[in-house]
Design goal:
Oligomer: single chain
Number of helices: 13
Low-confidence stretches: 290-310
Distance between the termini: 24 Å
């Protein structure tokens, strides 16, 4: 689990509120997670489409920051508590990203100690896992916990092999973005694995470089290697940056030597580019995991609205989460 989540003073209370909402809305064990049902149960409605000027007019007393007003930053979600309404960006976000934002705003609405704040405006910074502001961290934790249905994510994770295909499969199962599923997979994995999230690749014909947006490591990876030593800006010498620059969709398996706090080590990396970001899934050569169930590779994963909801076996569910 992310260290910022571990440090949340209200972590236990958020877990209970999330679980109560999942049970009360009859969403626990339903796949993909029925986000709109959860939002409706939380007594909120969704207004699709966000225009910063109309929001400024409607909410004159809200202190919109200059980045939002100038358009440098985009509003992804806005909660109006008094109107019981979530305003949602449906243009520049995938369906899966919208799911997370809906639950983030529902979290602001559901956590009783946040009720003195009548409006919340959220952009990419407040929705980022590294955000420091406590109310935003709490809403992010609520959204992730609810979307991935507590221990049910770990239950499904434990059936799958150590491969980038596994979190991609889980993303589709829960109705989450690849980014969110990869991060949660790393943070909850009992294997030594890590994830780099890349962005800002240079255009074709220019000097090849990109930046590292996020880095995540499993607890056991950090125990073994310490932190990966990765510069904030990466150039052509990095094999996965070449994959990114030449617009590869996926690289299944390549060897790479990386520097860690405990010295150099040999790793396997797998690469996936979803057009929003590129993801580098890393684990040591020889790291293996037993598989309970056969994996179907999902190389052509597309983030779109899932068509079918299925229920997990009730006996299996009862064994994993106490009723």
């Amino acid at each position: 689990m992310d260290h910022l989540e571990q440090q949340l003073p209200a972590k236990k209370a958020i877990e209970q509120i999330s679980l109560d909402i999942l049970k009360g809305s009859k969403s626990l064990g339903v796949f993909p997670t029925p986000v709109d049902r959860i939002v409706n149960f939380s007594d909120l409605i969704i207004a699709n489409g966000i225009d910063i000027k109309s929001l400024q007019t409607k909410f004159k007393d809200y202190p919109f920051n200059e980045a939002l007003i100038s358009g440098l930053s985009k509003v992804r979600g806005f909660l109006d508590r008094s109107g019981k309404t979530i305003y949602l960006d449906t243009v520049d976000q995938s369906i899966q990203r919208q799911n997370f934002v809906k639950l983030h705003e529902a979290g602001h609405g559901a956590l009783p100690w946040q009720k003195s704040t009548l409006q919340f405006v959220d952009d990419d910074d407040s929705l980022d896992p590294s955000v420091k502001e406590e109310f935003e961290r709490e809403a992010n934790f609520f959204a992730s916990l609810t979307l991935f249905q507590h221990d049910l994510f770990n239950h499904e994770l434990n059936k799958l092999s150590l491969s980038i295909d596994s979190p991609m499969k889980l993303a589709k199962m829960f109705g989450a973005s690849v980014h969110a599923a990869l991060r949660r997979y790393i943070e909850h994995s009992k294997n030594r694995c890590a994830l780099l999230v890349l962005e800002n690749i240079s255009p074709p014909g220019t000097q090849c470089k990109c930046t590292v947006r996020n880095k995540f490591q499993s607890a056991i990876f950090s125990d073994t290697f310490g932190q990966l030593i990765i510069p904030e800006t990466l150039g052509y010498k990095w094999a996965f940056v070449q994959d990114y620059y030449f617009q590869k969709k996926m690289t299944k398996t390549k060897n790479i030597t990386l520097t860690t706090e405990n010295g150099e080590a040999d790793f396997i990396y797998q690469f996936f580019n979803n057009t929003y970001n590129a993801f580098v899934f890393i684990y040591p050569i020889g790291e293996k995991k037993s598989v309970i169930k056969k994996i179907v590779a999902i190389e052509s994963f597309v983030e779109e609205k899932p068509k079918k909801k299925t229920k997990i076996d009730k006996e299996e569910l009862k064994a994993k989460i106490s009723q």
